[in-house]
Design goal:
Layout lengths: L2 E3 L22 E6 L1 H9 L10 E7 L21 E2 L2 E2 L6 E14 L5 E6 L3 E7 L5 E8 L6 E9 L2 E6 L13 H23 L17 H5 L5 H17 L27 E15 L27
Antiparallel strand pairs: 1-12, 2-12, 3-6, 4-5, 6-7, 6-12, 7-8, 8-9, 9-10, 10-11
């Protein structure tokens, strides 16, 4: 499933709140907030429970060489559509579902934060308080089914906790195949026989014979041992005379790097921020994959959704 994203560009000054035309006017940008001002936004975010973005329209796919390309019916299209890495050559077999997605994020500068998002396929909210406790929840559609997975989690001084409706997997003991069982029994029998024989005669080779044919190393035979002090003197002489010699091929000379001066990090009172905005996002859906069911089954259909050519797909 491919997603087309259309963003609205909004120019806003710090501390200036601007609302745009959308399903829910929650477009906000607040910068350079005091921790107390930021906490007001963190305590009242646009939404606190995750839910999938609502659908606002269903549009036909209009290609660049279609006579309707420049008409209002085409909607916000570029005339080209891609799915699974390839351009769609048969746009009549697809429709474009448009959804009203949204997201928000804020911090108070003292460790607390809150963020969330809503898209057609998943949604999430999470917040953290200054004490360090974290809580959140998210939902998403499980594979190609209509079942929505919902997860709620929180982390505190007692650890991490989670509640969900994820299908549980019942663990079953490993079923041993017959050939594996026979091989295991044969191995166990051989091991028991070997253990019994070892108890009767622990040393099959007889009494331990400590005869060792020791051969001294060549350095010991020739008296080539060098005291550590002699080795150190040789190394020091080599390093001294080597540094006084002429340039040798392959010898590398390095230029000392200038001393790095690190500027101290700016300090000041903690500041926070908060933003939230809505934006349209689209999903290309093949008509044949719907099987006569409503478009995007399992999702709420908004009243302002439109049909294509007076048909229901």
């Amino acid at each position: 499933m491919n997603v087309l994203l259309t963003m609205q560009t909004v120019f806003m000054r710090p501390r200036l709140q601007v609302a745009l035309s959308s399903a829910v006017p929650t477009n906000i940008l607040e910068l350079d907030l005091t921790p107390e001002e930021a906490q007001k936004y963190l305590n009242s975010p646009p939404f606190t429970e995750p839910k999938l973005a609502g659908r606002t329209a269903v549009l036909p796919l209009i290609k660049y060489n279609d006579a309707r390309f420049r008409s209002a019916e085409a909607g916000p299209t570029l005339g080209h559509y891609w799915k699974n890495g390839r351009e769609i050559e048969n746009p009549d077999d697809y429709v474009e579902e448009v959804y009203d997605a949204s997201q928000f994020h804020g911090q108070d500068g003292l460790g607390a934060y809150a963020y969330g998002y809503e898209t057609p396929e998943s949604s999430k909210v999470e917040n953290k308080v200054r004490s360090g406790d974290v809580s959140g929840s998210y939902t998403y559609r499980a594979g190609n089914t209509n079942e929505l997975i919902k997860v709620r989690y929180w982390a505190d001084s007692q650890g991490f906790h989670q509640e969900d409706n994820i299908p549980k997997v019942v663990l079953q003991p490993v079923q041993e195949a017959e050939d594996v069982r026979q091989a295991r029994l044969a191995h166990e029998k051989a091991w028991e026989e070997a253990a019994a024989a070892a108890r009767v005669q622990p040393d099959p080779q007889g009494e331990y014979n400590p005869q060792i044919d020791y051969q001294p190393a060549a350095s010991e035979q020739q008296g080539a041992y060098a005291a550590p002090s002699q080795v150190n003197q040789a190394r020091e002489a080599k390093a001294y005379y080597g540094s006084q010699g002429s340039y040798q091929p392959g010898q590398a000379y390095s230029t000392p790097l200038p001393e790095r001066i690190e500027e101290p990090e700016p300090t000041g009172p903690p500041r926070g921020f908060f933003y939230a905005f809505n934006y349209p996002t689209s999903i290309l859906v093949a008509k044949k994959d719907q099987g006569g069911a409503p478009i995007n089954p399992g999702y709420p259909i908004d009243q302002d959704s439109v049909s294509i050519q007076a048909k229901h797909y």
